[in-house]
Amino acid sequence: MKQLSTKLKIVYVLEYIVYYLTSYFKFKYGIIHNNIANITITAHTGCNGKEWNSIESLEDGYKSGAQILEFDLYFDKNGVPCLSHGKLKGNEIKLEDAFKFFANISVVKGNIDVKNVDNMPVVFDLIKSYNLSDRVFFTGVKEKFVEAVKKGCPGIKYYLNYRPKFLKLNSQQYLDQLVDIVKKNGALGINMRHDYLSKKLIGKFHEHGLLVSVWTVDSEYYMLRAMYYGPDNITTKRPSKLRKLISKY
Length: 249
Description:
8-stranded parallel barrel; 9 helices; 42% helix
């Protein structure tokens, strides 16, 4: 019985290696999606080993050539917006400091990844104060966050964070339902893990004028895979690497 279990493990490993290699060459030498010229690159916070949610991370993402810089939005106990992925430690950068950085550069956009929505009107006041209404947008917006985002920051665009059902990615009926969910929530598109990419999903969303953004794509294999399917945005901690790959095509 033990010998059989070992043999099954070996077969499983061999099958995975074959799948990985064949997929790699498929994505590397297959027909790259014709949307590749329109793909934007978002530098994930903490890109290239920099501290998460720091000005240094934003600067590094900017120098890497990314069109969009990401940082996380959280609120302290007084409702002041800060840059943090979760529980505050007390030394966080204020959202206003990030906006000061963006106000001095006009090329890139800011992706505000919403971790909670405690005081969105204050965020809106800062956006207006620094004239960033057309340069920032929200991700991290789950369905339960939509109302607070819409009311607190009217007119600011956002992606709907959503986890599709993997086994239904090729079902036209399910994709129609997914499109309806995004439209119903007033989002400009869907933001999801890169694992859920499919050609039918991309095609269905583009057919309805909606965008597809994926995260977090760091290895060359998954970069090529994402490029193969052709989403509108790819978020990565290695923006320079992704930019070089895209430039080859």
